[in-house]
TrEMBL record:
<keyword id="KW-0802">TPR repeat</keyword>
<feature type="repeat" description="TPR">
    <location>
        <begin position="238"/>
        <end position="271"/>
    </location>
</feature>
<keyword id="KW-0677">Repeat</keyword>
<protein>
    <submittedName>
        <fullName>Tetratricopeptide repeat protein</fullName>
    </submittedName>
</protein>
<dbReference type="Pfam" id="PF14559">
    <property type="entry name" value="TPR_19"/>
</dbReference>
<feature type="repeat" description="TPR">
    <location>
        <begin position="272"/>
        <end position="305"/>
    </location>
</feature>
<feature type="repeat" description="TPR">
    <location>
        <begin position="204"/>
        <end position="237"/>
    </location>
</feature>
<dbReference type="InterPro" id="IPR011990">
    <property type="entry name" value="TPR-like_helical_dom_sf"/>
</dbReference>
<dbReference type="InterPro" id="IPR051012">
    <property type="entry name" value="CellSynth/LPSAsmb/PSIAsmb"/>
</dbReference>
<dbReference type="InterPro" id="IPR019734">
    <property type="entry name" value="TPR_rpt"/>
</dbReference>
Length: 419
């Protein structure tokens, strides 16, 4: 028995002391073929230092064996020594039998460094050399997938699938095509592939993508079923909760949606959008106290989320908490973070607080933005009328009556201006 085989036997037994002895004997006494075989086995076991030592010994003896350079480069990359790896690979000439492999190693290296364009160049060069090589096609597909260029990834995956290759390097190619179509907003094609996969064989990410795709196709029952299965199998998958809540709300299961969104908050307490969705569900159930609590919490987490600020402001106006609304919105106006609805809500609040001057100022500020909003036109026209600004009152009433000709009260007030 060779020293290499003895070393491997001791390694499998967990006898590291004897393994080291036999390894050193193999390094100095075994044939080149046995040393290379031992290096391959040790690399597969994760003993990269020893494998690299063996490869380097062989490279000194056979400096033209470029395959050894790619083996060493692989190990250097795994160790994070990318510059040394590239130095090894740069010594491989284009006419070398190992040049194709060196391109693949370089492409992988540049991809891990997120130098995607350089990685693409290496793979396209490899593709010219071996246009029908499946592993190159797969590498290109994976690169495009990682880059988010799904429309370019899909043809590469389909080329492999048409050859009958459904899995490669532990990657399900049907999943990849389905998710790529979904991310490219081609939901009809996406679901055609995703539904071929049994739910029990799906990862959490694939379950989510499948349910999300059904949601986009308005196939709510299927979306709900898969979202629930994902929740049961992976309750910490926080992203599912807003979408499951959305699907349940759309099917008028508001109470169920509310419970699901609350579950989501127990999983992800720092997701401001989840607080917003939960608050909106609470409002649909007339749970205004809870809605207020959720919106205030969401606002604390992300004060810059204007959507939450608007929802919170609208609720404060509805609850007639006018002082709180003024305090809230003035903070944003002082920081020049404006939304037209701020002006309208402030106008209402100041009017109710009998600060007519500031109410007038905010109605004027809101006016250009709501010229097609019948509710605003009538409300603001009545305010301007009481404030004594007949010109603005007349202008807004005229526009309102054209939109709502059956409003006799408004028509009568308008006629008063014409008399």
């Amino acid at each position: 028995m060779s020293y290499s085989q003895k070393a491997l036997d001791f390694l499998e037994e967990g006898n590291i002391e004897e393994f080291n002895k036999q390894y050193n004997l193999a390094l100095h006494h075994d044939s080149d073929e046995m040393v290379y075989s031992l290096a391959e086995e040790l690399y597969s076991y994760g003993f990269t230092n020893q494998a690299k030592e063996l490869y380097e010994k062989l490279l000194k003896k056979f400096p033209d064996e470029d395959e050894l350079r790619t083996d060493i480069a692989d190990i250097l990359i795994s160790e994070g020594n990318t510059d040394e790896a590239l130095e090894q690979l740069s010594k491989i000439s284009k006419d070398s039998p190992a040049y194709l492999q060196s391109l693949m190693v370089q492409a992988d290296l540049y991809q891990t460094q997120e130098l995607f364009e350089v990685s693409r160049e290496k793979l396209l060069e490899a593709k010219k050399i071996e246009p029908d090589e499946d592993i190159i096609t797969f590498a290109l597909a994976e690169l495009f997938y990682t880059m988010g260029e799904y429309n370019k990834a899909i043809p590469q995956y389909l080329t492999l699938i048409k050859k009958g290759i459904m899995n490669l390097s532990s990657v399900n190619l049907v999943e990849r095509v389905g998710i790529s179509y979904a991310n490219d907003s081609n939901f009809e094609n996406a679901i055609g592939y995703l539904k071929q996969i049994k739910t029990v064989d799906m990862s959490s990410d694939v379950k989510f993508e499948t349910a999300f795709t059904y949601l986009q196709l308005k196939e709510y029952d299927q979306a709900i079923d898969i979202f629930k299965e994902l929740r049961d199998s992976d309750p910490q998958y926080a992203t599912l909760y807003p979408y499951l809540g959305q699907a349940l709300e759309t099917t008028n299961k508001i109470e169920d949606a509310y419970k699901v969104l609350q579950e989501g908050l127990s999983v992800d307490q720092y997701n401001e959008k989840l607080y917003l969705a939960t608050a909106r569900a609470a409002l649909k159930l007339s749970e205004t106290d809870d809605a207020l609590k959720y919106l205030q919490e969401g606002n604390k987490i992300d004060p810059d989320d204007i959507e939450i600020v608007l929802e919170l402001s609208n609720l404060l106006v509805f609850r007639e908490d006018f002082d709180d609304n003024v305090k809230l919105l003035n903070t944003y106006i002082e920081n020049h973070e404006l939304d037209p609805q701020f002006y309208w809500n402030l106008a209402i609040s100041y009017d109710k607080l009998d600060n007519l001057k500031l109410a007038y100022k905010n109605y004027l500020a809101a006016k250009p933005y709501f010229e097609d909003n019948a509710d605003f036109l009538k409300e603001a026209a009545l305010f301007f009328r009481e404030y004594g600004d007949k010109d603005n009152s007349y202008e807004l009433l005229s526009r309102y009556v054209k939109m709502q000709p059956n409003d006799e009260e408004a028509a009568f007030m308008l006629e008063e201006y014409l008399d």
